[in-house]
Amino acid sequence: MPLRFLIRVLLGFAVAAGTAFGADATVDIDMTLRLDPAKRTIEGEARLRLPDGKARRLLLAKSARLISLAIDGQSTRRRHRVRGALRSWSLPSEASTLDLIWSMALTPTPTHLDHRETLGRDEATAAELGSFLPAAAHWYPGLQVDGEPALQRWRVTIETPPGQRAIVPGRLVEVRNSETTWTATYRMDVPAEGIDLMAGPYRLSERRMTSIDGRALSLRTLFHPEIEALAGDYLDALAGYFELYEKWIGPYPFDDFTIVSSPTPTGLGMPSLTYLGIEVLKLPFIRHTSLGHEVLHNWWGNGVYPDYTGGNWSEGLTTFMADYHYAEGASADKARAMRLGWLRDLSAIPPGKGLALARFTSRRHGVDAAVGYGKAAMLFYMLRERIGRAAFDDAVRRFWRSHRFKVAGWSALREAFEAASGDQLGEFFAQWVEREGLPRLTLVAAEGGGAELLQDEPVYRLRVPLHVRGGTTRQVLLEPLEAPRHHVERPADSGELLLDPDFQVMRRLAPGEVPPTVRDINLAGPTQLVVLGGDAMDGAAGELARRLLDSEPTTVDGDSPSPDRPLLVVGTPDTVDAWLSRYGLEPRPAQVGRRGELQAWAGRHGATQPLVVISATSPNAAQAAARSLPHLGRFGWIVIEQERSSERGHWPSTPQSIGLRGSEKGAD
Ligand SMILES: [Zn+2]
């Protein structure tokens, strides 16, 4: 029979408790937990060592059963207050320790959620296939000081039935196995935001590496058995990211990093771990993109905490130094396409509906994501273009050294970039962080062969690249634009002048600069539906429209669609071609021809309204495409063959340009 045995997994270097955190209120939590995923229960005993503070309250979920509470060793039946799903107790000013015993019944783990539904859920759930107890569910006792949640350090021992393993953020210090239980202890020695607990039927894989400052780092995967074979590739990728970011920024602030698989399609980053859905982990590109992004959050977000009252900079800096860095490493075209994608999403936000970066807190809906990720990442791109790569990297290292495990806002970032570059960046940060909306630039021909660069008021201070192309001439002018109008002398006798064709300036793109995509049809209000090809097509077209559109369309007659509203046209190939010519639109593009059973493409009608045309050989083909087409919305054109997309692509963007003989051309 196997004897009870003990493995000391790691006795690594502990980050000195409380370093650099200054006066921020931090509670020390020492807990022992017993989780039974099959019975969906958790029981716990905790001791909290309290920080000073005027108004301190103990917090615990209303659904938890409090078995005992003692303040400084004295058992108490203090009265509590209930708000929503939360119970709280005010604490006497002299109290320094709390001891609690509690238990809680957990909700079954949901098995039919999509990614959007898993974001923002704060329920503690359990099942043998996977349990997730987010800190926001208040499944364990926490503390509020002066109305704000206190940061926490912890030592957590978790016991589960054999076959299950559990993890919380922090350093794994001990694992014990017996016939009846599996037990692990984790420590978080620096202040962190809260304890998320994950458990499942995990298989462990592990790799050791040495950090840049000589510590032993443990990289691990806790994967469900069905994806255990992927562990080696993920550990290779992890090692690469740690090498990259330690060199670029500074030492990894923790001692462990674990990728934990989830039965739900989730994607979360926490200090020292990331929690990703099994189906997500199976996608081959995840280890080249999202994984690096989550690793980098240990520096930005979980290593330096954003000051949410002044705007969350951590998603933008992480997107720039992860997603964008990888695109740049792949090719200049990929990097350009990513910048275009950010500007395209920002340009889709109607004027006046935008959000200043100073008001971005977290990912909620489309506008927030476009601003918090795209606008902030574009800010860092322009900043690096302005001060140069060496100063940028120096600033990032300074910022990390002086704000590790502290709360820092945009102003702390500005100071680091100013110190590293010697530039005054107050105006740069103010216009991109505080202002909502974007500059709108227009290039027009001027008398005498030069050009005028125009911007709407109130103006931004910009440096705008103008490309000169033609014959053998290829040069880039960097024009300072600080007024509504700026004159550009004719730089060559012939050729073309193009406005920022590589998307290097944060701005609202003109309609011609944004290549149309199928999903644009959802951005401009209610859609008109035109069905061609007889009654048989009606049902299939309706089904297709419901899947493709965010809101119910209005069916209109093919002869009289309004030029001021988005338009979806569904029909058979012959009826579609006849309609396009009757309505005076471009014929079907050569990219799709009549290939496959269905062709879909995006364009524009009226002056600027989105148009999507779907040409299907039969109602059945249209019906079948209703499943795949909604997932392909980022493309400009798509061919569906045997219910799957066989070909797809993007339309090119057309930059604003003028001819250099003085005649205007192609500007819109
Ligand atoms: Zn992120």
Give structural notes:
- With 668 residues, the protein is an alpha+beta fold.
- The protein has 13 helices and 40 strands.
- It has a 9-stranded mixed β-sheet, with no helix packed on it. A 7-stranded mixed β-sheet has the order 34-33-35-37-36-38-39. Strands 7-8-4-13-14 form a 5-stranded antiparallel β-sheet, with no helix packed on it.
- α7 (366-387) packs across α8, α7 (366-387) packs antiparallel against α10 and α8 (389-403) crosses α9.
- Bound molecules: zinc ion.
- Zinc ion is lined by residues 293, 297, 315, 318.
- Residues 293, 297, 315, 318 line the site of zinc ion (ZN).
Provide a quick synopsis of the model.
With 668 residues, the protein is an alpha+beta fold. The protein is 24% helix and 32% strand.
Spans of at least 5 consecutive residues whose pLDDT stays below 50 are 1-23, 662-668
**How many beta-strand segments?**
40
The CATH topology of the largest domain comes to: Immunoglobulin-like
> What is the general shape?
globular
In round numbers, the mean pLDDT is 89
Q: How is the main sheet built? A: 9 strands, mixed
Distance between the termini: 80 Å
CATH architecture of the largest domain: Sandwich
Helix content: 10-25%
Helix tally?
13
Within the largest sheet, what's the order of strands?
1-17-18-15-2-3-9-5-6
Gyration radius (Cα, Å) is 29 Å
CATH superfamily of the largest domain: tricorn interacting facor f3 domain
What proportion strand?
A: 25-35%
Q: What number of domains?
A: 5
The distinct bound ligands, ions and cofactors come out as: zinc ion
Identify the CATH class of the largest domain.
Mainly Beta
Question: What would you call the structural class?
Answer: alpha+beta
